Amino acid sequence: MEGHYSAPDFEPETLMTRLSATSLAAISPDIALPAYDRAAITPGIVHLGIGAFHRAHMAVYVDDLLKDQPDWAIVGASLRRPDTKEALEPQDGLYTVAVRDAAGTHPRVIGSILKVLDANSEREDLLALMASPQIRIVSLTVTEKGYCHDPATGELDQRHPDIVHDLANPTAPKSAPGMLVEALARRHAAGITPFAVMSCDNLPSNGATVKRIVSKLASLRDAALGEWVADKVAFPGTMVDRIVPSTTDADREIVAALTGVEDAWPIMTEPFTQWVIEDDFPDGRPAFEKAGAQLVEDVEPFERMKLRMLNGSHSTMAYLGYLAGHEYVSDAMGDPAFVALIRGLMTEEVMPTLDMPGTDLGAYRDQLLERFANPALKHRIWQIAMDGSQKLPQRLLGTIRDRLAAGQGIERLSLGVAAWMRYVMGIDEKGENIDVRDPLAIRMMAIAAGAGSDPEALFEGLVGLAEVFGDDLADNEVFGADVVEHLDSLFDVGAAETVREVVG
Ligand code: CS2
């Protein structure tokens, strides 16, 4: 998702043709190309946060549908950096998605993104497009922190600098919620039906959460607008799933060798993809189900399952794996103690909290373990470790609360939290600095500096971050005792040995 991927250092090779509308004929004949006339497609969707995740996920589903539904193409927007625009513009929006596993790498050229706008330099064009009736869906992948909310409560953070800015400058907003409110305000004023707002980020109850944030911001601007947003705008919830590591120069070379053309920013991903969507699109939608999405009435059980099973395991593995010296998820999965920990975490501690009639959770777990072990997918642990303060509540803390309320143990879940606390200290087990990327990094490192390597003090300091832990967990004795015990062990014997001890 946007913010997680570094821009490629792309220097076109003089001998090889660059991917573009005119070079499609030069592509190796066994590579799939857009199955429709790109000159005939028109935009129906604006997507905010046109990072790697969107391009490996929703844009592929839309690409599958454009042949029959040409009025649903995507205009992407990047809110922070113009790098995606710079990579895709010379390529007429075309890019390669390469699916990788042990059996090989399979590229395909995607054409569903008509163009990319840079929200900073082209804000007016973007807002005007969002306000126009042809746009019926605005979708988002802006990462957890892009919603400017308090992760523990899911409420708009009114002190967030971008929100303060957007309230003072409502017609020239910076934040994703601010862009949505301004575009909706223009539609409201012009009597145009609102677009549906579809979050594709890993937030809990993402539809309801984004509705709460956007209607609150709208009401701070104008009470009547706030009511209109709350009553008339649809915010379908989604569960999105596909593992998308950031692209490296080596990936660029692999893709060029397979396709015969240069792509400045191909996307590498796994074979698996899943999209569960709440069917709430009053102004219409593409037939996403024809491309394999599941349209359901209530998406929350799916979201909870995915956030707690996949993302909860990912974050646990990321903090412990980083401290243990692993670079990629598949490296950590090469250690039987890590596999036993993650398997045990899901089976013993997460699965009993899920209510999923009709879903074989054991099979879901086994498939996750297989996906994590994919040796061809170079998924950096550090990439997952980013923004933990925004991720922990929905990935680990919700499960912990449910189990504590039922008097059940949290041995492995609390190890994930302890490893995060140890990680955000910013110093690894060899005494080297860790590049901790997190909106709260400065505060957390100050807390850690005050605590030194005293587990109790570190826990007390970090659990006081109410936007992460709420106001209940700090006083929970079981939680405190478990996390402090694990921290003690992490300081004492390190992450690899702690994992071995916990799995016995
Ligand atoms: C990962 C996710 O970076 C992370 O935090 O846990 O991006 C994960 O790969 C996706 O949610 C998989 O669908």
From TrEMBL:
The Mannitol dehydrogenase N-terminal domain, residue ranges: 44-290
InterPro entries the UniProt entry points to: 6-PGluconate_DH-like_C_sf, 6PGD_dom2, Mannitol_DH, Mannitol_DH/Oxidoreductase, Mannitol_DH_C, Mannitol_DH_CS, Mannitol_DH_N, NAD(P)-bd_dom_sf
Annotated keywords: NAD, Oxidoreductase
Pfam families per UniProt: Mannitol_dh, Mannitol_dh_C
Source species, domain of life: Bacteria
Coiled coil regions in record: none
Domain Mannitol dehydrogenase C-terminal: 298-490
Stated name of the protein: Mannitol dehydrogenase
